[in-house]
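Hi F.,

I've been meaning to write this up properly since the lab meeting, where we talked about keeping a consistent format for the predictions we share between groups. The idea is simple: the sequence comes first, exactly as it goes in, then the structure tokens exactly as they come out, then a line or two of notes. No screenshots and no reformatting. I'm using this chain as the first example so we have something concrete to point to.
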Amino acid sequence: MEKERKAIWLENGLIIMAIAALWPAILHWPDRVTRPLLYLALVAMVVIAWRRWRRLTGIRKNKNGQKHLMNWERNSWAKVIFICGFLIWVGLFTNFILRPGENRQAKEQEKKGDVFFNEGKPERALVYWRRAIALAPRQRAPYEKISAYYLLQGQWLEARKVIESGLTQLPSCANLYFNLGLSYYFSGDYVRARESF
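Output, unedited:
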């Protein structure tokens, strides 16, 4: 029994370390640091999940040496808490590891575009904003920025092309519909402008 208690304490410590291993990914530390930590944490969590599930549902010997099934009801809250915690951890893990870092890279490209735009280099900004769209086509900000730039330049057709491609990815984005309405309004198509607003 003492050996099992030590194993549970060790498992609890590993669970805390696995949770702590998520923070470098949440804080966007470099991948060369976060990936090995998260893979080690995943291995630890899978081993712990297997051991705990086996312990909670397995056959145990009582004091007399007789085998009996573990009492499911006696440990039901522990099982619920463990299963929920494990599922939350796996969900966070898949968000940071199994899903590619496209969103992070797209945000970096978008920020570079913002820097160039603020420095008065809009053509270079457009390149980076388009890269952001290529990396993560479901992020609305690059579409909005490119379309707003074209609207300010009076290039209604170019703005409309960007907006329409954005609306295929984000059909409920109000800002894109607003920009679409502006492009129609300024090009003189008041009926379509009214429909877009």
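Notes:
The chain has a mean pLDDT of 77.
The chain is about 80% helix and 5% strand.

If this format works for you, I'll send the rest the same way.

G.
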